[in-house]
Amino acid sequence: MPPPAATNLGYTPPDGGWGWAIVASAFISIGFSYAFPKSLTIYFKEIQEYFSVSYSEIAWVSSVMLASMYAGGPLSSILVNRYGSRPVVMVGGVMVCAAMVLASFGTTIIHLYLCVGVIGGLGLAFNLQPALTIVGSYFQVKRPLANGLAMTGSPVVLCTLAPLNQFLFDSFGWRGSFLILGSIVLNCCVAGSLMRPVNKNVQPKPKAELPECNGGEEAATADIAAQADNHLAEENQNESNSQSCIHKFVDVSLFRHRGFLIYLAGNVVMFFGFFAPVVFMAPYAKHLGIDEYSAALLLSIFALTDMFIRPTTGFIGNTKLVRPRIQYFFSFAVSYNGICHLLCPLATGYVGLAIYAVFFGLGFGMVSALLFEVLMDLVGAHRFSSAVGLVTIIECGPVLLGPPLSGALVDMFGDYKYMYYACGVFMLVPGIFFFIMHYYNYKKLDEEQRQSVAVKMKTSEEAVQLQMSQNDKIAHETNG
């Protein structure tokens, strides 16, 4: 990506120090945000029988929760810009706790939609977006690694909650389990308390110390980056005087950003098939006659694989070879997920499902570790808060409809293989789309960069010639 996208912060991030405490708190906050809706699938079969509902209807519980989490992105973004990450995350933890307590007294499936889905999902939005934003404010050079470590919270929490939920259900039933889960999620308040705002009163580094976001091209474009920084500062000043309050918090100009539109278009299709395979993994195993604890163990296998691949992905993404073209890495991860889902119906026994869980965990972990890093790489850290808010509100549609549509396929055919075929197509198509469009985007960026360098050199030559002519004129007047 162009240097301006990576350096327009107005300060030098510490890239360490208290930033690692921020990564730990984001680890907890992000972990509960993503793992909570997945872990609740352990209770789906029993809740389905209790309320006498279909696969499609029970899938709406996780679906509404995830959709509310994504739909709450813009509101969370506004609150973070106004109050900071710390209070927003703490309020989110309290909201999820209250949602689970209220859901434990539910008498209809609609009650669970409202409590677990709407209130709990909005609380998770207040945990997710602030954690993503504050990591980007503390890291620049080591940002892919920091994001990878923070995103590892999801599989770690899921790996813990999957067997714990089965134990809680056997001991207390689903109502008692919801009460206990409500108290456990209050750990998000502890994580939020660690999210101290970054100290922005730091002198910027010299141009020669700019991070190598574009490899060898960085040195040739350092001056352009500095000019772009100054230009951005002027633009921000003008916007603050002319734009409304809403436009300050939600940067609608992103819809004219080529890379952002590519990311958004691919993700809208991708999310139709992103979460459904996880939501239906345990029910699928039970459908094949596998016992409840072994079915729950599949989620743990998936989560363990996911847990190790996320920091590994962050480490690989931070290397000089991959980071300048990290969008290709993301494209591969999305395509790989699609292939895994297309091959899943070939796994008939428990061993086959366990192998699928491993390969799926690898793909899911790679996509999750890169999902927000590639967005920040496209738009820059200074616009990330607005970008992630816009992305999540638009993605809430496919996130909401994906699992219920997949559940409808199960209800229609009485078999899970068609659901996995559909999810495979929904992942493979955007993966190929990303490869093609990012090749085009990188090519256009290289052309624009060469043009900028040419303009800079031409301007410098004209300035030198003008200075020489002025010197000659002064010398001529002096001699005359």
Automatic annotation (TrEMBL):
Q: Where in the cell is it found?
A: Basolateral cell membrane
Alphabetically ordered keywords of this record = Cell membrane, Membrane, Symport, Transmembrane, Transmembrane helix, Transport
Major facilitator superfamily (MFS) profile domain location is: 19-442
One Pfam family from the UniProt entry?
MFS_1
Q: Which PROSITE patterns does the record cross-reference, listed alphabetically? A: MFS (PS50850)
Question: Which InterPro entries does the entry mention?
Answer: MCT, MFS, MFS_dom, MFS_trans_sf, Proton-linked_MCT
Give membrane topology per the record: Multi-pass membrane protein
Name recorded for this polypeptide: Monocarboxylate transporter 2-like
